[in-house]
Design goal:
about 80 residues; alpha+beta; Alpha-Beta Plaits; four-stranded antiparallel β-sheet; 4 strands
């Protein structure tokens, strides 16, 4: 079993936006990966971006710069 740890979870309205985040962050070398949306959160799309909480400011600036539409930003232990 994986050890649970604090994570920044970013949700999206569409799968296209989630995949756009994955592609853009991969090219930019930003931390994180796509995961299924945790049960504690409801979202329009079933995918979410999981990253270290300390990367929040960097990711928020990045999604604005890249015009990636997000649904919500959460900090959870997952």
């Amino acid at each position: 079993m994986r050890l649970k740890q604090p994570r920044l979870i970013v949700t999206f309205h569409t799968t296209t936006a989630a995949m756009g985040m994955e592609l853009a962050c991969g090219k930019a070398g930003l931390p994180g990966r796509l995961i299924p949306v945790p049960r504690e959160i409801t979202a329009g799309c079933g995918m979410a971006w999981s990253a270290p909480p300390e990367a929040r400011a960097q990711l928020e600036a990045f999604v604005q710069q890249e015009n990636i539409t997000t649904d919500g930003w959460y900090e959870l232990i997952v």
